[in-house]
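> example.struct
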């Protein structure tokens, strides 16, 4: 079979990637609206929301294996023609998410005050954050059920229904948030209740879809144990990301208010474009997993090459676009001359790294789709330990400012690029079969 025959039609790739982009963008957009609503309550509620929301995000982001891991396992089964078993993965991931979510909910009621107090030293902001967090984490089981739902639906190559469910949930939250905060008079706590309501709607839709297609099934500890093994590697990988990004924010803040503000502007743009590029990675996960489930390593490798080239091209376009906007876009975020003077020290790193990010995120999707989580874990942790973290803290000691921080990010991204290219070229990730049990003895399978 020729490589051309193995290429995925662009229309098919976009049919998976565009709805996935909608899902990825929906939550940040809702957070912006939530922030605007709460912001009119005053500085203390807004600071409480910022702190509580950060802690909520840290907790939920550590459990994204329920999405990515389930996609990898379900996609293989779907590609092997075992749709019922792919749905069963979704059932067990949902049970697992519900169980872990209940544990988080209970721990939050006990630990919220001590953790927030440790971070802030107490006071009005801490009190506001604790009140918001205790209510918001009631939604933890629903959030994790939804993550599992995204996972199995992506695995069976359905990214449209998740978009509908997320929009439905966020729509409920958008309506309730201003009503509960102001006319009802619940203030900051009203924001948390609106979040929980929206999360419940989305989770209910995912559960309903699963019950219709798979029926009611009991928990299967063997399947959940296998999911947790994959999840362990993805959690460690996420922890490496968190350590890097939190360190960068901390060093920027310690360097000075202007530096911190400039870093925040460029970092939020970086995060937004990462979501844009990640939509391509989600499509790659589904397609690669299905190809390997069909026992076609050749097709999976061809998809990996194709998606990587697309990622490179997409990254170049974004880099050129934001280079052209360098004199205009920063003014949309701030009119402070000191902050604007700092932004270029990060801006040109941000622009230059877009092609690298395009390839890195694409290959992340390829290897995640193959279930190659152990390699991703090790590569990410090594890149963080040898590149990003040393440069970040050295820049604080040496007074390098944003240039040092973003040099660290550059080393991190180039480290990831090198390790991912080596892995992709080796072909050892392309393990065929309905489940990933071992690595091939050669790259010619």
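> example.seq
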């Amino acid at each position: 079979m020729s490589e051309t025959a193995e290429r995925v039609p662009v229309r098919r790739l976009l049919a998976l990637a565009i709805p996935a982009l909608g899902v990825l963008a929906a939550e940040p957009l809702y957070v912006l609206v939530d922030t605007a609503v709460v912001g009119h309550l005053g500085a203390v509620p807004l600071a409480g929301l910022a702190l509580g929301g950060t802690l909520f995000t840290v907790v939920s982001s550590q459990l994204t294996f329920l999405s990515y891991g389930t996609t990898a396992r379900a996609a293989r089964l779907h590609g092997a023609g075992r749709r019922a078993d792919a749905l069963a993965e979704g059932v067990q991931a949902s049970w697992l998410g519900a169980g872990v979510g209940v544990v988080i909910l209970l721990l939050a009621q006990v630990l919220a005050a001590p953790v927030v107090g440790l971070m802030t030293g107490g006071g009005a902001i801490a009190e506001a954050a604790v009140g918001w967090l205790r209510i918001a984490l009631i939604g933890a089981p629903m959030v994790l059920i939804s993550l599992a739902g995204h996972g199995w639906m992506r695995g069976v190559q359905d990214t449209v229904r998740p978009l509908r469910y997320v929009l439905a949930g966020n729509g409920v939250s958008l309506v309730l948030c201003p009503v509960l905060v102001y006319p009802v008079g619940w203030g900051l706590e009203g924001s948390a209740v609106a979040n929980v309501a929206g999360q419940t709607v989305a989770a209910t839709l995912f559960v309903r879809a699963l019950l219709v297609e798979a029926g009611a099934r009991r928990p299967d500890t063997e399947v959940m144990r296998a999911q947790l093994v994959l999840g362990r590697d993805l959690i460690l990988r996420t922890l490496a990301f968190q350590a890097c990004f939190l360190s960068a924010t901390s060093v920027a803040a310690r360097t000075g208010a202007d530096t911190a503000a400039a870093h925040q502007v460029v970092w939020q743009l970086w995060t937004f474009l990462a979501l844009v590029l990640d939509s391509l990675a989600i499509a790659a996960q589904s397609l690669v997993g299905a190809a390997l489930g069909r026992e076609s390593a050749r097709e999976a490798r061809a998809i990996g090459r194709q998606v990587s080239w697309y990622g490179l091209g997409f990254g170049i376009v974004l880099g050129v676009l934001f280079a052209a906007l360098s004199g205009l876009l920063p003014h949309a975020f701030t009119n402070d001359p000191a902050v604007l003077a700092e932004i270029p020290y990060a801006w040109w790193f941000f622009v230059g790294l877009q092609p690298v990010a395009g390839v890195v995120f694409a290959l992340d999707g390829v290897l995640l789709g193959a279930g190659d989580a152990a390699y991703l874990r090790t590569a990410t942790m090594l890149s963080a330990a040898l590149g990003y973290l040393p440069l970040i803290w050295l820049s604080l000691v040496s007074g390098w400012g944003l240039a040092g921080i973003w040099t660290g990010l550059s080393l991190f991204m180039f480290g990831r690029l090198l390790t991912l290219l080596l892995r992709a070229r080796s072909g050892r990730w392309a393990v065929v079969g309905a489940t990933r049990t071992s690595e091939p003895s050669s790259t010619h399978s």
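> remarks
Residues 242-426 form one domain.
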